[in-house]
Amino acid sequence: MSESYFPISLHSLRVDTVPPFDLYLLHSSSSPPVLYRHKDTQFTEEVLEKLKQNDVQNLFVPRHQREDYFGYSSKMVAETVRDPDAPVEKKTRVVYDTTATIMEDLFVSPRSNIRIQQAKDTINQAVDLMANDQEATRKMIFLTCHDYYTYTHSVNVTIFATALMQKVLPHLPGEHNYQVIGEGFLLHDIGKSAIPPGVINKPGKLDDEEWRLMRRHPQIGQEILNSTRHGDPIIDAIVLQHHEKMNGQGYPHGLRDDEIHPYARICALADVFDAITTVRSYRDPMPTAVALKVMRDEMGEHFDWDYFNEFVKLFGELNE
Ligand SMILES: [Fe+2]
Ligand SMILES: [Fe+2]
Prior knowledge:
With about 325 residues, the chain is mainly α. It is built from 14 helices and four strands. Helix content is about 55%, strand content about 5%.
């Protein structure tokens, strides 16, 4: 059987470390990647510069070495975030790219305990970075990717929702555990891993059966997390209630108003916003201002109005 590879961001490699996996380069989309650096070879500043000069954004790692890659990259994120000499651009980029790569793999193997733990650890770094530094929050929002994939969607939603949470639910001792809430935002759609991609990416309307399946993803998500012992009351509330609407027309339980957990109300706003501002194969993305107007005019009854107003202000402040 021929080897398969997965792309990794150049940003997830730290100079002067020795990656315990092979690095491959893709020269053309019609041929397989070729070996570039053997595992256990020092990754140097010169190598990084050369790759950048050649406009290389991604390298490839053989799939059978993925545990080595994820173990390494989770460690590198923590080191980069702690590094007082690393600029905030670098920190936010490393956290964003690494979390996205972990989430991509997690959607393929959603019951991997170790991958869920790595996803949690990495997003904790992002949430801490955002909680301690307004500039990091700003940079994170600008990094959000506008191509829609379930894994980048998960990271984007976490960024928007965490930024909103900082405004509406200040971090007071013993009150809101930003890290666990961030884990809930990141994992909110994990149940979609059980839904065929043909349904998730279907351009037109879903038929009854497809829609019935789609509406089960909150419960499936909760079940996955509980079966891997990664459930938590806060994470559960976000995963289970992020499609509930304030007017009681949401799913799975048709909860309304205060019956919906505040963290799930925050997630719902970030979720819809990201869905309509990213490119889908069947439509163009909406610019931020248009998206916020559509959310207000056409979906106003779905959202917590106070949170929505703060969400609008958040984007106003970004442009100041
Ligand atoms: Fe969802
Ligand atoms: Fe979502």
